[in-house]
Design brief:
Blueprint (H helix, E strand, L loop, with lengths): L1 E5 L3 H12 L3 E5 L3 H8 L10 H10 L3 E4 L2 H4 L5 E4 L14 H13 L4 E5 L7 H12 L6 E5 L9 H7 L3 E5 L2 H11 L6 E4 L1 H32 L3 H9 L20 H14 L5 H13 L2 H10 L6 E5 L14 H11 L3 E5 L4 H4 L8 E2 L3 H5 L4 E4 L4 H4 L3 H7 L5 E4 L6 H6 L3 E3 L14
Length: about 450
């Protein structure tokens, strides 16, 4: 089937590449001409494991194309995926500007009947509005249907999730349109949830809100564990054996980030407010997460009294491993606070430094390796659990840093017994602290 995908961010590009991989002819459209020219050569604008090789394979197989021209990209496409960003306004409401702009371009250049499939996360009721919006801007006598097909991809494992997901959700008011989208996805052989559009919109928000709730819950448990001397990892393991709870999203740390959870939880709170419902639980989830992101800095201040002039190494900048995405990354909050406190910060991330540099304070120095960042540092902060960081030799860490180094690990990357053997003062999340002289701190 000939398909078009409008927008080549994380969702759009992964969607287009994977649809090509299962046999469809796909043209990805983006208004950024320079970006399009790079993608034509198989160079992705984002880091996502496995994406580049899959792009090149499907370009070579002549199933995957890129264009900056809507007229060319939409030619003979019976199904058009809309996958542009829906950022939030400062008050937490959803900004649909990019969606409307892309929808208007589709309407202006569409010359055949088509199904518009929205992948963008939009508030409940938006797809109904979008259908009317496109109709009002059509330049030719064509028929359209709108289907909502929300994505549930995890950045860092988006390719894997596309082919091994838990379900595909299809929201449609027209049964024939829904059947077409079912047919497109049939090669994936995943469970289908076919429902109406509002339900599909709500499934996406409710799913992300629930996962965010699990993260904030286990972080609150972690904070209690620290105060009573328990180990949150053992607690989470015991909890997760209950099949009603499960182990996923019970990993304590410094909170969630990225392009979905912060935005979608805020949007759901505002949607609830719009129908006179005070979503108290989700407000607490958001508040807990915001507090958790600064927990390591607060521990360091309490331990050291002042961070003024301290040489600090920050390992990991992306909001999670496997991606170079800096959106809502905890590192942004932590580093800004460290700079405010007068610390001298050197940062390292294996993939995200290019994206991080423009949005971090100019005082931050960037290292070429974790070892360079740790050299002569008095304090280390671990903020992203990259393998390159988890596999660091603690012996090397101790030798690289100044005498009596202190590590604040926001992702619980190291086993406590290993840390004890190397006489490093170590503070993690929800676990007992280790003092450099082996006495409990």
């Amino acid at each position: 089937m000939k398909l078009a995908v409008v927008g080549t961010g994380y969702v759009g590009l992964v969607t287009g590449v994977c649809l090509a991989e299962i046999g469809h002819q796909v043209t990805c459209i983006d208004i950024d001409e320079e970006k399009v020219e790079k993608m034509k050569k198989g160079i992705p604008p984002i880091y996502e494991e496995g994406l580049e090789s899959l792009m090149k394979q499907n370009i070579q197989a002549e199933r995957l194309f890129f264009s900056s021209e809507f007229e060319k990209g939409l030619e003979k496409a019976g199904v058009i995926y809309l996958a542009v960003g829906t950022p939030q306004y400062p008050d937490g409401t959803t900004d649909l500007t990019a969606v409307e702009s892309a929808a208007k371009s589709i309407a202006h250049h569409l010359v055949q009947d088509a199904i518009i499939v929205t992948k963008s996360t939009v508030p409940v009721g938006s797809n109904e509005y979008l259908k009317s919006f496109i109709h009002s801007h059509l330049k030719n006598d064509v028929s359209i249907e709108v289907v909502h097909n929300p994505e549930f991809l995890r950045e860092g494992s988006a390719i894997h999730d596309t082919f091994h997901g838990d379900r595909i959700v299809i929201g449609a008011e027209n049964k024939q349109a829904a059947a077409v989208i079912e047919q497109i996805n049939q090669p994936l052989d995943l469970p289908l949830v076919v429902t109406d559009i509002k339900n599909a919109e709500m499934i996406k928000y409710a799913s992300n809100a629930f996962l965010a709730t699990k993260i904030s819950f286990i972080n609150e448990i972690a904070n209690i564990c620290e105060k009573i001397g328990a180990n949150v990892e053992d607690v989470a393991y015991g909890m997760g054996l209950d099949k009603r709870i499960g182990h996923q999203f019970l990993k304590a740390g410094i909170g969630y980030g990225g392009s979905c959870f912060p935005k979608d939880t805020n949007a759901l709170v505002h949607m609830a407010g719009g129908v006179d419902h005070d979503f108290e639980l989700l407000k607490s989830v958001i508040r807990v997460n915001n507090q958790q992101q600064l927990s390591l800095v607060q521990k360091a201040k309490q331990r050291l009294g002042s961070l003024e002039g301290k040489k600090v190494a920050v390992l990991g900048l992306a909001y999670k491993p496997g991606t170079d995405d800096m959106r809502e990354a905890a590192s942004l909050v932590v580093i800004h606070r460290l700079i405010e406190e007068g610390a001298e910060v050197t940062a390292y991330d294996p993939f995200a430094m290019e994206n991080a540099a423009p949005i971090l304070p100019r005082q931050v120095w960037f290292a070429k390796s974790a070892a360079e960042a740790l050299h002569d540092a008095e304090v280390g902060f671990i903020l992203t659990e990259w393998d390159q960081i988890k596999n660091l030799s603690l012996k090397d860490v101790k030798e690289l840093m100044k005498a009596d180094p202190i590590i604040y690990d926001g992702r619980n990357c190291f086993q406590l017994d290993d840390v004890r053997q190397h006489l490093i003062e170590y503070h993690s999340v929800g676990r007992p602290s280790i003092a450099g002289d082996l006495r409990s701190s």
